[in-house]
Every structure is written in C-alpha cells, then in structure tokens.
Amino acid sequence: MFDEPNAPKRDKRMSLAQHLVELRKRLMYAALALVVGMIVAYFLTDPIIHLITEPIRIVAASEGNEDKVELMYATITGPFDMRLRISFAIGILISAPIWIWQIWAFIMPGLTRKEIRYTVGFMASAIPLFFAGCYVGLLIMPHVVELMAQFTPEGAAQFYDALLYYDFVFKLLVVVGVSFVLPVFLVALNLAGVISGRGILKGWRVAVLIATAFAALATPAADVVSMLMLAGILVVLFFAAAGLSMLFDRRKAKRTSTLLPPEVS
C-alpha cells in the first residue's frame, strides 16, 4: 500500500517509460486490493441479500400470500451471478482506501502543496457524503418497492427477477450517493476560482428546481414523502456549499487586502 523506503521517488524528470512502469505497479496493487475485497465481500453476500430483499418480504406479508410475491432467478447461474455482482460492488467499497491511495500516490508528486491540501479536503468530504447518500437511498428503496407493488392488478402474481432487482437497488444507491457529492464539486470550483460563492447562491432557484426534478425521477411519483426528503437534503447541501464558498471568498478577499501595498496619499 505504501511506498518502500528505498524506492526511487518519481519526479517530473522521469521518462514516459518510467511513468508507465509506475502506473502499472499502482494498477496491480489496486487490482490485488479489489480481488481481496471481493473475496471478503463474498462471505457478506447473505446478509446483504437479506437486507435488500426485505421490501419483497414486506410486500409478500401485506399480500398475505408469499407464493405471489417472490424473488426469482431466471437462469441456472442466476444465484452465482447475483453474488458475484454484490461481491464486486462491496469489494470496491472495502478496498477503496487502498486503490484511492494508489491513485493519489501516482498523481501526488506532480501536485503543489496547495493542490494536495485541497485534494485531501475534497476526498475527506466527498467520501462520507457518498456513503451518506447511499444510506439515504437505502432508506428510500423499500418505499419505492412497496409503492410500486400496489399497482399490481388483482389476481396477478409479482415475481422479481433477482438480477434486475439488484441492478435497480445498486443504481438507486449509486445515483443518490453521487448526487450528495455534487455540492463538493461546487466548492472545488470555487476554490479553483471558476465560480464565486455569490455566483453559486444566485443559482438557488435553478438548484431547487433540479433537486426537485431529480428527486421526482429517483422516487415514484406517488411517493411524495421520499421525494420531499431527498429534495430537501439536496437543497440543504447546495446552500451549505454556497455558504462555505462565500466564506472562502471572504477569506481570500481579506488575504488579498493585507497583501496590497498601502495607498500613497
């Protein structure tokens, strides 16, 4: 994970071939970490499957007939495929500290001290926000499944294809998780001097509209509570990003004013 004490340090004078060798080494470490993470995650697939299929059992209990609402595998290899997909997704999360470090270790020698500080701050805020978004998606997911099950016609059975069901859950968690990270990108753009805090705040109407539209797309139209909860969280994160950016702008202005020479009377 960490560089050897006697390993030669990379600098800007390295040749292209040396950079490629360094990149290959980092990719090998990242791939090895992913494989180990997948192996560990494989033993966690049973509780994970039990967790994400809880809405199906709730729907089955409400219907009073478990034979009409079930998770099914349409192919012979379906159960293994589902476990493999879950292992891959969880393996990426488990091994994240290692492969993120490998990416960081590869690009870090080319960054200035200021850029390194900003990058560390970005990662330290983006990763918790992503997991928080995944958790919110996990809270929304049962309401989505239960609500959609209410539209099943009388006398019809509802069988959920396991792989399609997993894809739905995985995409929902990822989309909501990424949406929570977007305000961090706004702060990063502010630090880079691309947009000011006041400029971010001026777009609050557009931000509220986008947050509401995204929440409406990510949740069923009839599930107003989940939509309002998701939209409200996104709006709060946007205003937090705007406020933080304005604070950074104020600090920049004070720093600039102290560096300016006094006016000659």
TrEMBL record:
Mode of membrane association: Multi-pass membrane protein
Query: GO biological process: any one?
Result: protein transport by the Tat complex
Q: From the Swiss-Prot or TrEMBL record, state where the protein is found.
A: Cell membrane; Membrane
GO CC, one annotated term: TAT protein transport complex
**An example Gene Ontology molecular-function term:** proton motive force dependent protein transmembrane transporter activity
Keywords, sorted A to Z: Cell membrane, Membrane, Protein transport, Translocation, Transmembrane, Transmembrane helix, Transport
Q: Where are the transmembrane segments?
A: 27-45, 86-107, 119-141, 168-192, 204-222, 228-248
Source superkingdom:
Bacteria
- Assign the protein's first listed, main location to one coarse class: membrane
InterPro entries registered for this protein in UniProt: TatC
Pfam families recorded for this chain?
A: TatC
Which family is it part of?
A: Belongs to the TatC family.
User: Which HAMAP family is this protein grouped with?
Assistant: TatC (MF_00902)
- Name the job this protein performs: Part of the twin-arginine translocation (Tat) system that transports large folded proteins containing a characteristic twin-arginine motif in their signal peptide across membranes. Together with TatB, TatC is part of a receptor directly interacting with Tat signal peptides.
Q: Could you describe the subunit structure of this protein?
A: The Tat system comprises two distinct complexes: a TatABC complex, containing multiple copies of TatA, TatB and TatC subunits, and a separate TatA complex, containing only TatA subunits. Substrates initially bind to the TatABC complex, which probably triggers association of the separate TatA complex to form the active translocon.
* The protein, known as: Sec-independent protein translocase protein TatC
- What is the protein's species of origin? Microbacterium kyungheense
